[in-house]
Fold:
Amino acid sequence: MFRRHWLRRQRRLSKALRGTFIHRWLGEHLFRTALWAPDRRAVAGGVALGLFIAFTPTIPFQMLLAAAGALLLKVNLPAAVAGVWVTNPVTAVPVFLAARRLGVHMLHDTWLFDLIQGFIPPDRRYAMFLNQAAYLWTGSLVLSTVAALGGWAFVNVAWTLLARKRPADRNGPRGDRAEPPAGATPDPPGSG
Structure:
């Protein structure tokens, strides 16, 4: 049921994209089946890619980066684009403040921070900006990696659990495929 609904929705979306600017720009690569397929590998990869990009400080370009990454990596395009919306205008500030704090915790007074300082010119304002950017990007890349691995694992586990549950659902409520209880005699042909 869900798979049919997903496929119908993706067909409508791909038809709506035909002839648009993005179709003219990307060509037929936009309509590869791997980009729209609702299979475990493609969806898990799309979610992982979207979450990775979501936690990087690239807010105005996240959807474009997710779409380009989905094209290059051949993962599910809608899942990748939807994944970047974890950081939206409401959640972006707390996420990036947490990423910066993590970066400060990881880099402060380490050999890596001293190495980064060696590349920064001594101009005070410029140096302070680059220090803060190093903190933010370090924390963001760590959060991105953790979120991507977590999203990939979650999709794979959820997909496996739903796939195991599905055959039981098919045989349960309707009963037409269920085996008769032990000891029960089947109805004679033509009696029902």
The two ends are 29 Å apart (CA to CA). DSSP finds nine helices and no strands in the chain.
